[in-house]
Amino acid sequence: MNIVIINWKGGENDFFTYFSTCMKQAIERMGRSVHIVDIDDSMVDKLAAINEEGIDFIILWQGIGLQLGATDTDPTTLWEQLQVPVLCYHGDHPAQMPLNHTATSPWVQHIYSTASFARFANTHLPRRIAATFFPTPNLFTDGVKGQFEGNFFVLPKNLDDLDTTLDRWRAESHQLLGSFLLHAADAIIGEFRNGDRTNHHDIIDGMLDAELMAALCAEFSSSELAVRMHVHALLDKIHRNTVAEHIVNDLADVPLKIYGRGWERFRLRQNRHHEFLSFDTISDNAFQFASQYGIVDAAPIHDALHDRTLRAMSNRSGFLAGSNWPYETFLGGDYGDLFFDGAAGGLRIKAERVMASPESHREQCRDFARHYQQHCSLFGFVKYLEETSNWIKVRTKA
Question: 167-187: per-residue pLDDT in tens?
């Protein structure tokens, strides 16, 4: 039997191809046969050929491709025609492309890399089969191989400038939605600066009371679910971009190489300590993990361990993560020195510790990585996928 990974090459920096390749190599190390099939004109023929040998299950990143085969008159998807388990592994919040999170077919299981994403999906998206949570295993193999050079930190982050976003909403503040977005953004930014204890989607839901929701539904002539998803999608990146801008501001006098788009306003400062660079595909940027000080990472939500941090771990590199990831819950240890919130000067103090002893910092990161591998192992992840696919086969026969 075969495992199939459906790949989409249209993501920024060809993100999914890198993930698909790493996942294929990882599962093959577990003794399984894995095929990567791109979403293109030849996809159906390739799947048919593989299915002649048998498909155990299919992995869809972010649920991309979930609706393939469905039409306005016939909702039957390609996956239901094949009658094989489809495991949608999501790293994004359900408000991003909701259609990819809402399938109710008994052949489909939604799995989230972040617990709060799964909780949101199970609260707001009607379905018979609950979404589940499984942390992303460390499946990356970049190959820096412990060769670290250069006394600087690296920030790998495409930025959506907060000033640009907030200015656009200020121009629409006479509208109910524009006014709400500004107040919610202020609450999200304030929470990050004051400890980052509440994830920003819970903040948004706490502000969307019944009266406001009714008014927004009337303003847009839309359902409550559609309005809720739209609001969450608009505000989703406020937290992560706040973390990214905080890194640059708090490390104003620290050597920092920033890789990514959107940093034009910060380039104008002409800070001699900061260098702004670009990169092409995700698969070609392992060099970002090869500095003495390691990366400073901006996680997408307060309880997430971001893929950049996982890649730093796989490269035995150092990291400081802008996240309140519950390390005591998952690993049973205190790794507070590796994580930061938006308290003024807090990140700067941790950066000083790293610069004073880069090797000691890397050793602490390696200890974290070893514990993570023990508790969130690749083997456990693959076994979970196999068990989930078997359960799908059982329930489709019931």
Answer: 999 998 889 999 999 999 999
Exposure string of 269-285, with b = 16+ CB inside 10 Å and e = fewer, is eebeebebeeeeebeeb
Contact 334, 327 (CB under 8 A): yes
φ, ψ for residue 90, nearest 5 deg: -110, 130
Instruction: List the helix and strand counts (H, then E) for the chain.
Output: 16, 11
Sheet holding 55-61, edge to edge: 33-38, 2-7, 55-61, 86-90, 108-112, 132-133
The amino acid sitting at 247 is I
Three-state SS at 278: coil
Residue 93: C-alpha distances to residues 11, 21, 190, 382, 392 (Å): 16, 23, 21, 23, 24
Q: Which two tokens stand for residue 384?
A: 């979970």
**Amino acid type, 299:** A
* Cut 0.90: pTM above it: yes
pLDDT in tens, 110-164: 999 999 999 999 999 988 899 999 999 998 876 676 679 999 999 999 999 999 9
Q: Which residue has the tokens 């026969």?
A: 397
